[in-house]
Amino acid sequence: MGSVRWAFPCGAWRPCRREWLLAAQLVQPEEKERIGQFVFARDAKAALAGRLLMRKLIAEELCIPWNEVHLQRTSKGKPFLANNLLGIHSNYNFNVSHQGDYAVLAAEPELQVGIDIMKTDLPGNALWVHQDILECFVVQITRTGWSLTTVILNIREKRERRKKKWIALKESFVKAIGVGIGFNLQRIEFNVSPLQLEIGKVYKKTKMLLDGEKEEEWTFE
């Protein structure tokens, strides 16, 4: 049994009514009630996908029958397996997150783990507004002015992407230690490396500073 990293494209999941009802029956009543409180259908779908990922993980990795899996949450909201586990499974740790088009899961047999996902693309309408503004003023600005405006927008977009990466890193740490929103995120800093990521590659060079001190015991992927 080793590390688990799963990603499910819930944005592309289009369950019919029968499939949705079946999926809802596969989770606990309190989970179903919690999912039903989401205002938007896409959020409810992502939340349900996350719960199903956890149950699939436990059934496959710990060999606990699906209908016997019992999940609970800590007082800070972190999900955990309430079934009595003995021996090598007693420290099994997992976490889920969902945003945008994906629900993701991370699990470790012996280590604390937290995961957070954040869509780094700017909203489509925001990009459209920028482009619309540029096109409206294209007649009035020089070639140099156009280039400068484009550069400014690119800088803003990169800054927004970097900010979201830092937020996701901080949230993953808070979720791993299970302390909830009461933790002062200003205590955490990151030396992110590399700044440019390639799809399909896993990086583990990012380091965290807690209260100004480098934390070597934590690994950020």
From TrEMBL:
UniProt-listed Pfam families: AASDHPPT_N (PF22624)
Major localization listed first in the record, in broad terms: cytoplasm
Keywords for the protein's UniProt record, in alphabetical order: Cytoplasm, Magnesium, Metal-binding, Transferase
Domain of life: Eukaryota
A Gene Ontology term for the protein's cellular component: cytosol
Reaction(s) catalysed by this chain's protein: apo-[ACP] + CoA = holo-[ACP] + adenosine 3',5'-bisphosphate + H(+); apo-[ACP] + acetyl-CoA = acetyl-[ACP] + adenosine 3',5'-bisphosphate + H(+)
GO biological process, one term: lysine biosynthetic process via aminoadipic acid
Residues annotated as domain 4'-phosphopantetheinyl transferase N-terminal: 12-109
EC numbers on record: 2.7.8.7
Keyword Secreted: no
Protein's UniProt keywords contain Zinc: no
Coiled coil (UniProt feature): none
Subcellular location: Cytoplasm, Cytosol
MF GO annotations: holo-[acyl-carrier-protein] synthase activity; magnesium ion binding
Listed cofactors: Mg(2+)
Matches recorded under Gene3D superfamilies: 4'-phosphopantetheinyl transferase domain
Annotated PANTHER family: L-AMINOADIPATE-SEMIALDEHYDE DEHYDROGENASE-PHOSPHOPANTETHEINYL TRANSFERASE (PTHR12215:SF10), PHOSPHOPANTETHEINE TRANSFERASE (PTHR12215)
Assembly notes: Monomer.
Family (UniProt): Belongs to the P-Pant transferase superfamily. AcpS family.
Protein name: L-aminoadipate-semialdehyde dehydrogenase-phosphopantetheinyl transferase
Organism this protein belongs to: Buphagus erythrorhynchus (red-billed oxpecker)
Lineage summary: Eukaryota, Metazoa, Chordata, Craniata, Vertebrata
Gene: Aasdhppt
